[in-house]
């Protein structure tokens, strides 16, 4: 009996000891979040104690007077706290009822835990009730709905930001008439894009600025990029996966580089290269109409300028700036690639089809992000883009249903027998001569967007038969019709009106294998035109050149899956008289250091 009592007491002691250990363990984890402090940037003072009734004023005070896991309540919100260049003290836990960023303010019905991704966009732990967005989405005095917001945009065909912009759909605007009585409740995980509209259209867009608030179930891993804003699937990438060994350090000596660092919060997007990529590029509305929602203070509205900015960013990343100096640009550039990839992954595979100068420059940021993060899933977009077009039974004019469109791929090709045999719009300029002088010919050209300058014309029958001349200039209207063509040398025999017949020349047998460009080659190959003056041709290669050069330097060309793009840019750039701009100077200095280089055989046409 005595032994049994002793054993019972030992069991009781063990239970008491275990309870004490459990209590210590529980207390440690329950109360390890730390102490609680309050901040009010308008009524607080850093000499106060930091209580709710006596709050501090600044986050600088938080940095010097708090510790890891301390809880900080933001009783109000200083605009500068939303600046991307303003760093919050790390490893604290923040709660707020309000967030301001890039001219957008979100108001909540209560305090919610918030934080920032590595690019300094905001997240909030949900579900969350948003009771107000400033500026509010309203109907203006002209009846336009402005300042709209979209939640997880999942279509590249419609938008809910501004009724004046293209493809408006009022059902997609989740910000209209929200209030305390009619809050916008958002379940995690989700992306809310809120915009501020312009008073009037500017360079093709109706949107001034945009910001993204991401609603999460729990705080993200430290170093996380913001997940893509497009679609319902939120994929997280992290700076720990950046492979810095893949970045190159070409000497910048002798090159006049643009300003790299963003030193202040500024509305001027072109003030520095970092600023170009600071704010989210809202680019999910497909084709040329997407320009109408590109936020003017976030990004360039027009594709040519977008591609040029991508070229500038790409080149700055391969120069010999110290790692720490280009880290912010690198993070922002990768974030852009993640967002663009999200549009592809979310189904927007036909967003950036070949069309004039609107849709260029989107593929490189995606490929760069996949390359630098060693992410094979991102890089897989190359398999269904570029030369995938030519998979049998598909080809120009018959695009594969799962083809991922990028303008620069769709517009470049090697001339084939099929291209020679195809009758182009420019070749529809044929018939009898209307008028002629010793160095001109008057014609009627039925096709629009097929300028004749830079083409060859041949007399096919009647007086002057067999003569071929180069067209120096043309007065044929853009939409087609009658006009006078000036030729490069006088006729040996002047063609006779109504008795001499002519035709304009397209591709010929000798052109087979030539890397070429066509405005809508993948989908409307009859719009191709061998003339160097073909509409929109002149803006292409010079806008591509920076990121094309970066592909050569980094080794991305081999992953791209479309060789004619690279050969065409070589062909175009080496026949240009390059100026002294940053992109041109980089091309002149470094292109020949990274062979192979395409060089045309036999000279120009």
Number-wise, the strands total 21
Structural class: alpha+beta
- Give the overall form: elongated
Main sheet? Answer: 10 strands, mixed
Determine the N-to-C terminus distance: 113 Å
Poorly predicted runs of 5 or more residues: 18-32
In terms of quaternary structure, what is this? single chain
- β-strand percent reads 15-25%
Report the C-alpha radius of gyration, rounded.
31 Å
Q: Mean of residue pLDDT?
A: 94
Q: Given the structure, what is the number of helices?
A: 13
| Helix share bin | 10-25%
List keywords for this structure.
605 residues, alpha+beta, ten-stranded mixed beta sheet, seven-stranded antiparallel beta sheet, 13 helices, elongated
Please characterize this protein's 3D structure:
This protein is an alpha+beta fold and 605 residues long. 24% of the residues lie in helices and 20% in strands. It has helices spanning 2-30, 59-65, 273-276, 303-317, 323-345, 363-372, 376-379, 407-410, 417-421, 537-554, 557-560, 563-573, 582-590; strands at residues 36-39, 71-74, 93-101, 104-116, 122-125, 128-134, 138-139, 145-146, 149-151, 184-186, 190-202, 205-216, 412-414, 430-432, 435-437, 440-445, 456-461, 468-474, 481-487, 501-504, 515-517. Strands 1, 2, 3, 4, 5, 6, 9, 10, 11 and 12 form a 10-stranded mixed sheet that branches. β17 (456-461) and β18 form a beta hairpin. α10 (537-554) crosses α12 and α10 packs across α13. It is elongated.
């Amino acid at each position: 009996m005595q032994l049994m009592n002793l054993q019972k007491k030992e069991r009781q002691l063990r239970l008491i000891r275990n309870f004490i250990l459990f209590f210590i363990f529980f207390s440690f984890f329950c109360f390890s979040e730390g102490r609680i402090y309050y901040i009010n940037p308008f009524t607080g003072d850093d000499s106060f104690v930091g209580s709710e009734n006596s709050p501090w004023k600044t986050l600088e005070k938080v940095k010097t007077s708090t510790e890891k896991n301390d809880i900080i309540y933001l009783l109000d919100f200083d605009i500068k706290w939303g600046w991307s260049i303003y760093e919050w003290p790390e490893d604290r836990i923040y709660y707020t009822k309000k967030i301001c960023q890039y001219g957008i303010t979100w108001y909540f019905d209560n305090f919610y835990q918030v934080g920032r991704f590595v690019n300094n966009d905001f997240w909030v732990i949900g579900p969350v009730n948003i009771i107000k967005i400033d500026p509010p989405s309203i109907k203006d005095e002209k009846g336009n709905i402005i300042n709209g917001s979209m939640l997880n945009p999942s279509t590249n065909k419609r938008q809910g930001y501004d009724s004046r912009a293209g493809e408006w759909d009022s059902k997609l605007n989740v910000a209209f008439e929200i209030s305390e009585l009619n809050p916008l409740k958002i379940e995690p995980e989700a992306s809310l894009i809120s915009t501020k509209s312009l008073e009037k259209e500017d360079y093709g867009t109706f949107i001034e600025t945009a910001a993204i608030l991401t609603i999460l179930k729990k705080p993200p891993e430290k170093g996380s990029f913001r997940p893509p804003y497009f679609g319902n699937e939120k994929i997280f990438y992290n700076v720990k996966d950046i492979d810095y060994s893949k970045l190159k350090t070409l000497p910048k000596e002798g090159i006049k580089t643009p300003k790299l660092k963003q030193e202040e919060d500024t509305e001027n997007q072109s003030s520095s290269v970092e600023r170009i990529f600071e704010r989210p590029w809202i680019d999910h509305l497909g084709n040329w109409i997407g320009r109408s929602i590109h936020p003017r203070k976030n990004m360039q509205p027009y594709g040519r300028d977008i591609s040029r900015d991508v070229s500038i960013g790409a080149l700055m990343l391969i120069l010999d700036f110290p790692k720490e100096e280009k880290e912010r640009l690198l993070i922002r550039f990768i974030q852009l690639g993640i967002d663009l990839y999200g549009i592809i992954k979310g189904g927007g595979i036909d967003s950036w089809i070949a069309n004039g100068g609107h849709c260029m420059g989107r593929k490189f940021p995606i490929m760069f992000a996949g390359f630098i993060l060693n992410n094979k899933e991102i890089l897989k977009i190359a398999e269904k883009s570029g030369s995938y077009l030519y998979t049998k039974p598909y080809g120009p004019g018959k695009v594969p249903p799962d083809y991922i469109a990028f303008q620069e791929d769709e517009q470049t090709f090697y001339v084939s027998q099929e291209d020679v045999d195809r009758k182009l719009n420019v070749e529809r300029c044929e018939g009898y001569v209307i008028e002629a002088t010793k160095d001109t010919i008057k014609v009627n050209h039925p096709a629009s967007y097929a300028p004749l300058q830079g083409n060859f014309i041949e007399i096919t029958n009647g007086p002057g038969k067999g003569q071929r001349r180069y067209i120096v200039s043309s007065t044929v209207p853009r939409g087609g019709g009658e006009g006078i063509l000036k030729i490069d040398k006088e006729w040996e025999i002047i063609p006779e009106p109504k008795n001499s017949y002519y035709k304009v020349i397209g591709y010929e047998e000798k052109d087979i294998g030539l890397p070429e460009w066509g405005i809508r080659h993948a989908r409307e190959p009859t719009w191709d035109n061998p003339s160097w003056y073909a509409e929109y041709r002149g803006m292409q290669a010079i806008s591509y050149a920076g990121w094309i050069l970066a592909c050569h330097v980094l080794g991305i060309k081999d992953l791209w899956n479309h060789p004619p793009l690279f050969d065409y840019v070589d062909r175009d750039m080496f026949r240009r008289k390059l100026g002294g701009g940053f992109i041109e100077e980089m091309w002149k200095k470094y292109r020949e250091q990274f062979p192979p280089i395409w060089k045309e055989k036999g000279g120009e046409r």
